[in-house]
Amino acid sequence: AGQAAKRFAADMEKASGGKMKISVIANQALGPDPQMLAGLQGGVQQFYTGSALAMLGQVKELGFQDVPFLFNTEAEAHAVFDGPVGDHLNAKLSAVGIHVLGWWENGFRHITNSRRPVNTLDDLKGLKLRTQPNPLTLDAFKAIGANASPLPWSELFVALETKAFDGQENPVVLMYTQRFYEVQKYMTLSGHVYSPLIFAVSKKYWDSLSPAEQKAMNEAARSATEFQRKTTAAEAGSALQGMKDKGVQVTQFSEADLQAIRDRVPPAIAPHLEKIGPEFMGLVRSEIAKVRGTAK
Length: 296
Known about the structure:
By secondary structure, this protein is α/β, with parallel strands linked by helices. The chain has helices at 2-15, 33-42, 74-81, 84-95, 135-143, 153-161, 172-177, 203-208, 211-245, 255-276, 278-292; strands at 47-50, 98-113, 128-131, 147-150, 167-171, 186-202, 249-251.
């Protein structure tokens, strides 16, 4: 995401004839996600890329992205976020002061821990895992036996290092770039959730721009989004190999265990899907069916 943000900044400086200079500040140096998103809403911070889940209290539909095994591939997810589902979320976020420029790739999430290989569902029992701050996610993990709790991203590495948490779940590129191989010994390629990032601008700032500036920003954002998705996908394979090279033991669930997860999770998350909204979830599933060519 950092490379794409820098590319966007360079494109905007060029398009504005040097008038628009954007500083890219990484690794949550401006604060945790909720603080940065609040800054975006207030117009104190102009741009943001990261998880949108801190906005769950204001845009309930965002919770759908953590429904396990919703997407089979990155291409499916891109098509859905670039279509009517994304349009719906973008409108909801715009109404609370956040103008979405694009949905970026974070990737499919996998599980790591420092205690034992997780080869079967039973191996998850009792593991204390850090998860996203989404009640749906917490209940999904509890349904399969894990002890799940949220924790700010900026505190995660130290929590794993001190064994306050046994493990976590994140896309492999993020794990590798953040050197989780130093504090985690085992990885299970669960691919249980596709995780997007939003690339957004403060609506207050967006509304202050001229139509020509908005057009240039949309074009630069489209280019940055395409670049970010391609580079993240390309990095995933090398990141996985990098984790292995650093001594992380990588395993996968059997099809039987994956099916057991698929069976156990729906009853646990049903109340959350009801809160997200049956109509919106219907839209999500119909759009996925269209992408797969299975729409009726």
